[in-house]
Specification:
This protein has about 150 residues and is mainly α. It has a domain of about 80 residues: hpI Integrase, Chain A (Orthogonal Bundle), CATH 1.10.443. The chain contains 6 helices and 3 strands, in the order ααααβββαα. A 3-stranded antiparallel sheet has the order 1-2-3, with no helix packed on it. The longest helix is centred in the last third of the chain and has 23 residues. The radius of gyration is 24 Å and the shape is elongated.
Length: about 150
């Protein structure tokens, strides 16, 4: 085991060591007190990075089409980036995007209209172009019977 070198690593190690001592005592391996009892830990500060409009615009302008689509999907659906990246075409039912948020398991039904509808059309067009280009270079993806219903929009 390597020696922890950063505060987050030390926090994890300090959280794990007392558990080992408790398990040794509970399992009858030792009668000695837990050597980690008196260790006082510290809490880690939460990372708070707020992306300004200028930073968002710069990344969007200079990013790839895939990155732009991912950013727009998260923005237009008002979802966390991780939730937006998990969205698939299977989540689209009757002009609604049906998803369950990962963080709080909250189910949502988002109507696909306006800019979000335009984005979905743009994603489908980009995917069709990518598939056509791959097939032109003999790198055509395997054709599954329900390929469009299981592939990610991004």
């Amino acid at each position: 085991m390597t020696t922890p070198t950063s505060r987050p690593q030390l926090t994890v190690a300090n959280g794990f060591s007392p558990q080992c001592g408790t398990m040794r005592a509970a399992g009858g391996y030792t009668d000695l007190p837990n050597p980690c009892e008196d260790i006082q830990g510290h809490s880690l500060a939460k990372r708070t990075i707020y992306i300004t409009d200028a930073v968002f615009s710069a990344v969007r302008i200079h990013g790839s089409a895939l990155l732009r689509d991912a950013m727009d999907l998260a923005y237009l659906s008002s979802q966390r980036p991780a939730d937006a990246l998990r969205m698939t075409e299977q989540d689209i039912i009757d002009a609604h995007l049906i998803i369950t948020q990962e963080k709080n398991k909250q189910p949502l039904r988002i109507t696909i209209t306006g800019e979000l509808a335009k984005l979905m059309d743009r994603i489908r067009a980009r995917k069709a172009t990518q598939d056509r280009d791959r097939c032109a270079t003999d790198q055509c993806p395997r054709q599954a019977p329900d390929r469009t219903s299981t592939s990610h929009p991004l």
